[in-house]
Amino acid sequence: HCHRNQLGHGAGSSAGGNHMTDLCYELLRPCACAFVACLGFSILFNIHGAGILICAFGGTLGWLCYLLSAPLGSDIVQSFLAAVVISLYSEIMARLRRCPVTAYLLVALFPLVPGGGIYYSMEHAMSGDIDLFLSTLLHTLGLAGALAVGVLTVASLVRLWIDFKRRRVKR
Question: Each residue of 75-84: pLDDT tens digit?
Answer without folding.
Answer: 999 999 999 9
